[in-house]
Amino acid sequence: MPLAERFFNGGETTVRSFKEAELGPRDSSGDPAGGLAYNVLSVELRQRLIGDFTGTLFADFGNVAPNRTREDQGQPPYRNRSQILSDTLGDFFRGFRPGIGTGLQYLLPVGPARVDFAVNPDRDHQRDEDRYVLHFSVGMAF
Fold first, then answer.
1. H helices within 74-141, ranges in order?
2. Which of 22, 56, 95, 111 could cross-link 103 (Cys pair, CB 3.0–4.6 Å)?
């Protein structure tokens, strides 16, 4: 499947403990390879602080399926749709990665200006994942 048609996870609107598209399988050069499906579960508590400022506490969980490339599995490229479907459904509910953190928003007419600080409590040192990530954006996380 072409790279542009794959699903990626991680970033300011999905699992915030990862940089954009960095959750999931990687190719042989270490770049995100994407997958054929993904899941995201986010829980966020918001509280207005002072004036137009709002604070949040959040927990994000997500994955990409299949969560390993065929190359990582030591197998040849897909030959038919049933192999693709089997790998995707086999990993659809596996490999969830967490992100926990806090944020501060300033409420604007077009949506909040946000800064989110997320920690990766399940950091994979072999993949050189960041311990924490800071996101700046405009609009709601989800």
1. 81-91
2. 56
User: b/e for 38-51, b at 16 or more Cβ within 10 A?
Assistant: bbbebebeeeeeee
Query: In the chain, what's the furthest Cα-to-Cα distance?
Result: 58
Contact 111, 99 (CB under 8 A): no
| Architecture in CATH of 3-138 | Beta Barrel (2.40)
Q: What tens digit of pLDDT does each residue of 125-136 get? A: 888 899 999 999
Residues 28-51 pLDDT 10s: 888 899 999 999 999 999 999 999
- According to DSSP H, which parts of 36-134 are helical? 81-91
Please state, in angstroms and rounded to a whole number, the distance separating the CA atoms of residues 136 and 3: 26
List the chain domain ranges: 3-138
